[in-house]
Amino acid sequence: MSVRTGRRVRTTVFSVVVAAGITATVCAAGPASAREAAPVSHRATQQAMDAAVRDGVPGVVGIAQRDGRTWSGDSGVADLRTGRERQPEDRYRVGSITKTFVATVVLQLEAEGRLSLDDTVEHWLPGVVRGNGHDGTKITLRQLLNHTSGIYNYTQDQALGQRIFSTEFLQHRYDTYTPRQLVDIAMAHAPNFEPGASWRYSNTNFVLAGMVIEKATGHSYATEIERRVLRPLHLRSTTVPGTDSRMPRPSGRAYSKLSTESTGRTYDVTALNPSMAGSAGEMVSNSADLNRFYRALLTGELLPQRQLKEMTTTVLMDPGAPDARYGLGLQMNKLPCGTEVWGHGGGIHGSSSEALTTKDGRHSLAFNFNGDWSGDSAAVVLAEFCGTAPAAKSAKPVKPVVKTVEPVALVK
């Protein structure tokens, strides 16, 4: 989900750069030079991870797989209080990467003849998308999944944003939201455009898609993801937590400034009720599971060929950026080196993630920043898939980063 603090709203891998307690001063783990050196083929990736930590990200962890070989990299720390390093097995909140899982289930249901992408939202959810110019009779399920519906993005609502993106989050982190409540927030605003007239990222689209799954199957979208995707692929580190605010182990902490600024206090925002994201972004996973999922998806393990073709049929996101296109819960980027990667990014409080693979599934990368106010995720992607080392900001050697975090009272 694009649940971000105000400074960055996640919509694409590259169109928006992404990168959040306890009183303590700790030294972050040193870069790769202090550990085993990365193989030549991933050296630029490790350098980009180290650069993100220099830029202020508490810690980075990721796994790349290429032609059957696996490499894991990390930099910085998982916990600013204890100094624990990040580990390849660490789980983290994946935000909008959830959208690809949701779209996969919708397309499986289409393959089974239980719904059609050309069905209207009104057909499945009578009266839900209505008001202030929204009209569910004119919006199809396909338009939900590729963000051409025009439906207002509920996370841009000013009142909700104040509660969940500012320091008010600390008092509201355990609030529960139903999908209908989130949609109703969107319905209080005018749509962005007429259905099909343009493209604009909206978390409301995928909250509605989750509601459609429940209506079509009689089960929650979480149950269907678990039954149709997680179990068949043995994604044992991936969960759909619902209203559970806890993080499964192993996992580190997540940090945010809870501000539009990149300076000031750093808050531990690990514990939160992810119902604020719902089927637009509530899932938890790790890098190995995400690589496995996207490889399986793009190589046809999860969808028949016709539905996979539908998913990878893309629309232009921004006329000024022709190399970034969006399918059905799936984004394609053509990198400057000519490589095409498919996947999704995800941001939620204190967590910024990317999961990408080439279409043939031979080269995959999934990684996470455990801070949401700094860091260049695009640099990590370009390093891995194009071998492009990040531009040096200083000729000085990398030193451990000293961090001070402010106390936050966590409600148990």
UniProtKB/TrEMBL annotation:
**Leader sequence segment:** 1-28
* Species in which this protein is naturally found: Streptomyces melanogenes
Query: Could you tell me the keywords of this UniProt record?
Result: Signal
> Where on the tree of life does the source sit, at the highest rank?
Bacteria
Pfam families the record matches: Beta-lactamase
Annotated Beta-lactamase-related domain residues = 49-371
Question: What is this protein's name?
Answer: Beta-lactamase family protein
Q: Where is this region: Disordered?
A: 238-260
